[in-house]
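Re: that chain you flagged

S.,

Sorry for the slow reply, it's been a week of failed gels. I finally had a moment to sit down with the sequence you sent. For the record, here it is as I used it:
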Amino acid sequence: MDNMLDIMDCMCYDVPTMYVERIRKKQGEKVYEQILLRESYRVRKDKVDKRTLLNLTHFPREQVEAIEWALRNPHAVALGVRGEGVTLREGKSVGAVWAVAEAARRLGVVKALGGGRQGSLALWQIVARVLDQGSRLSAVRLHETHALADVLELERGFDEDDLYENLAWLSEHQEAIDHRLFKTRRNGIPPTLFLYDVTSSHLEGDCNALGAYGYNRDGKKGKKQIVVGLLCDESGEPVSVEVFSGNTQDPKTVGSQAHKVAERFGCQKVTFVGDRGMIKQAQKNELTEAGFYYITALTRPRIEKLLKGGALQMELFDAQVCEVALEGRRLVLRRNPIRAQELAATREDKRAAVASLVAEQNAYLDGHPRAKTQTALTRVRAKINRLRVNGWLHVVHEGRTLRLVLDEAAREAESRLDG
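Prediction finished late last night. Pasting the structure tokens below so you have them in one place:
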């Protein structure tokens, strides 16, 4: 029993104790202090020794005091490490708002919007749209989790009605904002070339001043829409956006863009680039009268007319770029082999779709003796007309069996201008 107690005493004596020791020495008029992190341990039952673990003399005062406090209060430190007695609270997100706002500043958007509450609200709408593709209400809720006031200096709160009013403010000041942004980004050097195209967006409701029925690119039949025109500079950077009534045809939007470039941006003798459905003869005349140039593509009927009149020859659409001067215009000619392959593949896909329907109708006629052959013919012919392949693809019947007839010469003629 005595031997067991001796062993336990030795075990207890071997447990070291850490502490901070301050040693002061005086040399002449100066007093020097040495701060050491030490531990004491018992060598024998009747002898205690100590050793230095770290010299803290040159450590910052706050760190030394923190070490001293931790050694004096080990229980409190343990609670902090385990999270006991500590309340954690997540702050608002800063990084995302700051990154988007900084990008807006570098692009000149902040300067173009101007100061004041409305400018800050407009900037927040841009930031919120980048962070989350949501509604005005979602932008308000986003403000609850992001450090908007700190980054954008928008101290006073707002709701969705304030954001809708801000959209109206943006609409009223769009011309001035466009102009400021244009001047900031162009550095006094106006572009000589503009790229222009339109798109559309359908509406689920009816309460929109510009909502109307028109050619719907989304395939949403029976839905009102708006038409949006995007004007870009020569590098494809947006210059201006304009919204038109949903029943506005694409060419009808070109005139306002030419006026905007000439009057608002003060550009002269610029070149407009648009697709063949955008810049038609009326728009060409309008641009020419304004002193502008244009680049567009010839329509298929126009190419066929020029070929029949002898102004162009098929040999000019070769691998090399060819240029022809005609009636004061420059025609740049070249066949695009990739586009030609795409059109050929599309044509083959349409033929395969009709062939699949023919096989389906033949199977139905074979399994239903009382089914009418004329009904099956009508269905196949309707699909042929819908796919616009009736110039070279036909369907006939032999008894109760349908059969496709491919006019190879007609298909070859239609593919003559591919690419």
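What I noticed first: Residues 1-13 have pLDDT under 50 and may be disordered.

Talk soon,
D.
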